[in-house]
Amino acid sequence: MNYQEISNIIKERLKLKTSPVGVKLFEKEEDAIENFEKTDKTMHCQAIITASKGKSFYGTVNEIGCPTGAGILGLKEIPEKILNGSQFDKMNVTSSQESGKTLIDSVAKNNSIEAIAYMPLEDSKVKPDVVVIIAKPRQIFDLIRANAYQEGKRMDSSVGGTQSLCGDIVVNSIQTNEPHISFGCMGSHMATELREDQAIIGIPVSKLEEIANSLKTLTGRQRS
User: N or C: which end of the chain has fewer CB within 10 A?
Assistant: First the structure.
């Protein structure tokens, strides 16, 4: 798979100003060290935005600052106050501890890892697990159409307004091997450069080439 070519197709056809981002989960940090420099302290969602602007790097539990996001990704244990729903209740994310527990139970969670790498797709040094695209809704719409083009398959997404770029976009897309859409969570909207007019899609790498080729066909027809 030619990641440079695929990235060019996606950026050109969607008129993106930033790059699709490859995300790779590493069971062992030593495998990340071979190809990436370690980042400074950041959040997973901000790391994706930073990589979309052209920088490649990796982080561990010491660098990925959001405790819940790091737990969802498998870098650490998820705090008990999150797992039992009490923190969501306290923060008024949900109406009660019980509903908070129901919400976090529904979020996709990864097995234990030691590192996670972020890279502009065109500069991929390793095969990513998932490709994340941050774009305007109209651009995401074209990717939905491209996903349906070959087999007529609808895109199912599970969102709850929390753990968006970690659980919904990265982990869920990998575990289901299907694309997923999300709209950010309170953390990503309050503490990162994610804009109000943007949405996010995660595409498992196994689906990437097909979606890019379908996008090229569909947008080519629009131009003719």
Answer: C
